[in-house]
Structures are given as C-alpha cells and as structure tokens.
Amino acid sequence: MASYVTTFDDADKKVHLAEISTEPPKDVTRESAGLQFSQFGAELFELQDLLWGARTHSVLIVLQGMDGAGKDGAIKHVAGYLNPRGVSVTSFGIPTREELEHDFLWRVHQRTPRKGEWTLFNRSHYEDVLVVRVENLIPEAQWKQRYGHIRDFEELLSEHDTIIFKFFLHISRDEQKERLLEREQDEHAAWKLNAGDWKTRQKWDEYRDAYQDAIRRCATPSAPWHIVPADSKWFRNLAIAATIVEKLRPYKKLWQKRLDELGERARAELAAYRAAGGR
Ligand code: ADP
C-alpha cells in the first residue's frame, strides 16, 4: 500500500509544507477509508496486546499541528481502538512555574511510556521550538540549541526501545478558519472557544516556518516526522492508524516469540511446583 503520509527522517531533506497536500488522495473514498480504518484499528489492538505481554518496547506518539488541526480528534479515534490498560495521554500546556524552573525536557521525560505501554502526547517538547520561538519567549540562541537537545533526547528514548511516531496534522489555513467558525456555531463546542486561537492564526506563516525547521532539524531515522493530510478527519485517522500499524507489524513475530518463551517458562515453573507436591 502506498504511504498515506509524507515521512521525513533525514535532516538534509528540505521541508516545504506548502507543497504537501492537506487533502486525501483522490483514490481514497470516505467509505473505503472507514472500512480500512476499522481493520487497522483491530490490528492496533492486537499489536498492543502482544506488546503489553512481551514488554520489550514502548510506543510514543507525538501529535502536533496548528490550532484546530485535530489533535484531540485523532487521539479519540485512534486511541479509541486501544485497551485503556497500558495507554496514557498527556497534554502539554503553558508550563507551570515549577516546570519553567527546570530544563524544558524535564516535564516531558517524566511522561514517556514504560516498556509495554503506549503514550500519546497532545503537544509536546516541540512547543519549546514552536510557540516559544514565534512568541519570542526566550532568546533565539537558546531555542536554536534545543533542536540538538531534542534529537539527543529522542535518540535516548529510541535506544531504550521506545518506538517513536511524530505526526504533524497538516491542515490548510481555510480549513482552520472553517473549523474555528464551526466551533462558534456549535453550542456543545462553546467550551473550546479561545480568542487566542484567532490571534495565533494571524501568525500562520511564522508558525509554518517554525514547524518546517523543527521537522527538518529533528527528522531522524529513529524518530521520523510524518506529515498527515488532515483537512478530512476520516483520512487523518486512517493515515495515522496505517502508519503505526505498518511500522509495528514487523515486530509481531518478536513479540509473539517473547510471549511463547514467557509461557514456556511459566509452564516449567508450574510443573516443578506440582512435581514437588504443590497443589
Ligand atoms: P489545546 O490548544 O492544545 O487544545 P490549550 O488550550 O490548553 O490546549 O493550549 C495549550 C497552550 O499551551 C497552547 O497555546 C500552547 O501553545 C501552550 N504551550 C504548550 N507548551 C508550551 C511551552 N512549552 N511554552 C509555552 N506555551 C506552551
């Protein structure tokens, strides 16, 4: 299957978001996407179950995107297929005083998944080279150093067998406007209204540039970035699920083998217990 996302895993490759479509490929219909999504969902559940038992790896899913890009929706739909046991979601907002009095990765590192578990980040350490840069919260020399820190941090996680997915939910400026306006019309979504979203929207180009740099500078083989066409919610969900399943599928054998070994060991222990007269 052709990939539904554009992947960056090499800092030498330039990132031009304007050249990447925000819309689904023409040959994917909503109906076929729905069917595929439920198949991938079932596979996600199966993979999660194997990993939960095998405990050889952990999975970290980072979701970034402009306001209204659908980070919450993606979490709801993709994580909706997973067993809540062993899954956690962390949203990163404006840092607290305590967080600001530590290095920028301090709060993030505490939330990374342990072996066997999955964690989804709604925003992440990338805010520290995005909003922090665009809003001039710290000097340029300081945020520029962070790309290297982020690469090292992600390499450390990866060496500790964390499988990392970084998704940029790519929406068009027009689609964002429509979604923000829709929220205003929907009485049930009024709680999500935030005048700040409109203010941030004025800086669309600055955020896009910051994203392009962050994606390029932190694109590595062990922690690649995936650009997800996100103007259609149904395609966004499918593309994320497909990317995760395709990356994890090759681990299936390893995880199953580990479970078989654990099973054999447990059987041998039980047999020894019985042989010694245990009841
Ligand atoms: P969301 O917009 O993700 O639904 P919120 O309304 O709580 O959630 O917004 C979180 C806010 O926190 C965003 O405006 C984001 O830019 C900001 N934020 C996140 N991380 C940082 C950071 N490290 N420094 C400054 N602001 C941050």
Describe the 3D structure.
The chain has helices at residues 30-54, 71-79, 97-100, 106-109, 131-134, 140-159, 173-185, 195-201, 204-217, 233-248, 252-275; strands at residues 6-8, 58-65, 87-91, 118-122, 162-170, 225-229. It has 279 residues and is of the alpha/beta class. It has a six-stranded mixed sheet, with helices on both faces. Residues 67, 92-95, 122-123, 127-128, 131-132, 194 line the site of adenosine-5'-diphosphate (ADP).
Give descriptors for this structure.
binds adenosine-5'-diphosphate, alpha/beta, six-stranded mixed β-sheet, 279 residues, 6 strands
- Tell me the structural class: alpha/beta
Shape: globular
Order of helices and strands: EHEHEHHEHHEHHHEHH
Query: What low-confidence regions span 5 or more consecutive residues with pLDDT below 50?
Result: none
Biggest β-sheet: count, sense, barrel?
6 strands, mixed
Q: What portion of residues belong to β-strands?
A: 5-15%
List how many beta strands DSSP finds.
6
**Averaged pLDDT, please?**
97
Number of helices: 11
Radius of gyration from the CA trace? 21 Å
Distance between the termini: 53 Å
User: Considering DSSP H and I runs of 4 or more, what fraction of the residues is helical?
Assistant: 40-55%
The distinct bound ligands, ions and cofactors come out as: adenosine-5'-diphosphate
Strand order of the largest sheet: 1-6-5-2-4-3
Give the structure's gist in a few sentences:
The protein is an alpha/beta fold. It has helices at 30-54, 71-79, 97-100, 106-109, 131-134, 140-159, 173-185, 195-201, 204-217, 233-248, 252-275, and strands at 6-8, 58-65, 87-91, 118-122, 162-170, 225-229.
